[in-house]
Amino acid sequence: MGNFHGQSSWVIFIDDLNIVLSSIRVEEVIMEFKQIEAFITVARFKSFSKAADTIFLSQPTISAHISSLEKELKVVLFERASREVKLTSAGEVFLEYALDIMSTRNKAIQNLKNYSCSVFGKLHLSVSTTAAHCLLPELITHFYKRYPGVVFSIMEKSSGEIVEDILKFNCELGVVGREVSDERILCKSLIRDNLVVISPPWFNLAENIELKELLNYPFIMREVNSATRKAFESLLLEQDLSDKLKLCCEINSLDAQLQLVKAGLGISVVSERVCDDLAQLGKLRISSIKDFNASRNLYLLTSSKRSLTPTAQAFYDLCKEKFHFIDNL
């Protein structure tokens, strides 16, 4: 049932009746929808018995609802002296508010019914650079064809920032390049992503190169929270080579990273999916790291502490349909 409550005092002035209800705290007026519905029905049929029949309540129950309402409002709503029940002047004033209240309630119920089964509105996604370039375009296109009423708001961020967005409820879904172990986050593997070394063609790097040999070249790296960078740094740490890395540039833009490599500033490590086009055009050379499986997964993240909106749930379901992960939402 709906209650009307608050802390402020309110005053109702009805000049033509000279009725003044002053300093009535709203805490004292706890109107329920069933009372308001009973009031409107009696006003409509001008009869307690007809109202009772219409809304399937007993006449004593209808009378009790009206009496409770009058007691709470501290006014008489109906004249009961004649055979036909009539609204008092105060009742006529209250009827307008009662109709508005019930109309608002009914609209809210209807809209929420539509909301629970409709996919529309804005979908906020936070995605890593690799996902934004090689995974999201196809997904978004597929989803939009299925649900054209959706508008996308996509933020490209580092994996660390995306995790924060999920935890702070800034977005419902995120795609990152590293697995997240946190009970507050659900993490679903989407696709396998291979990391490769990119270099200008005139560096003449071998197609399959030793890790130690790579360290002779200056490196262009993504920002500290980048999952790609973390994956490569973990590889260096395993081989006790972290201090051998010649870092010449940190950058938070994939496009700029690729252009810097293409210009000959140094070499870098990126997802194979984001550099295929440039490699096919002969603008970059792709190398793999010898004897190492330099790969990681891309993951879909959502909060374990909140329910997804219908639109976000539909996107989640599309990912499940396409990538066949096990659902435990």
Protein model, in words:
By secondary structure, this protein is an alpha/beta fold. It has two domains: 9-116, Arc Repressor Mutant, subunit A; 120-329, D-Maltodextrin-Binding Protein, domain 2, CATH 3.40.190.290. 41% of the residues lie in helices and 25% in strands. It has twelve helices and 14 strands. The chain has helices at residues 33-45, 48-54, 59-73, 89-117, 129-134, 136-146, 159-167, 211-214, 227-238, 254-263, 276-280, 310-323, and strands at residues 9-14, 19-25, 78-79, 86-87, 121-127, 150-156, 173-176, 185-199, 208-209, 218-222, 246-251, 268-271, 285-289, 295-303. Strands 5, 6, 7, 8, 9, 12, 13 and 14 form an eight-stranded mixed sheet that branches. The protein has a two-stranded antiparallel sheet with strand order 1-2. Strand 3 and strand 4 form a beta hairpin. It is rod-shaped. The two termini are 30 Å apart. Residues 1-27 have low confidence and may be disordered.
Largest sheet: 8 strands, mixed
Strand content: 15-25%
The helix-and-strand class reads alpha/beta
Provide mean pLDDT, rounded. 85
Number of strands: 14
Number of helices: 12
pLDDT < 50 runs, ≥5 residues = 1-27
The CATH architecture term of the largest domain is: 3-Layer(aba) Sandwich
Order of helices and strands: EEHHHEEHEHHEHEEEHEHEHEHEEH
What's the Cα radius of gyration?
A: 33 Å
Kindly, what is the distance between the CA atoms of the first and last residues, rounded to a whole number of angstroms? Answer: 30 Å
Can you tell me the CATH topology of the largest domain?
D-Maltodextrin-Binding Protein, domain 2
Shape: rod-shaped
Q: Any idea of the CATH class of the largest domain?
A: Alpha Beta
* Number of structural domains: 2
Helix fraction? 40-55%
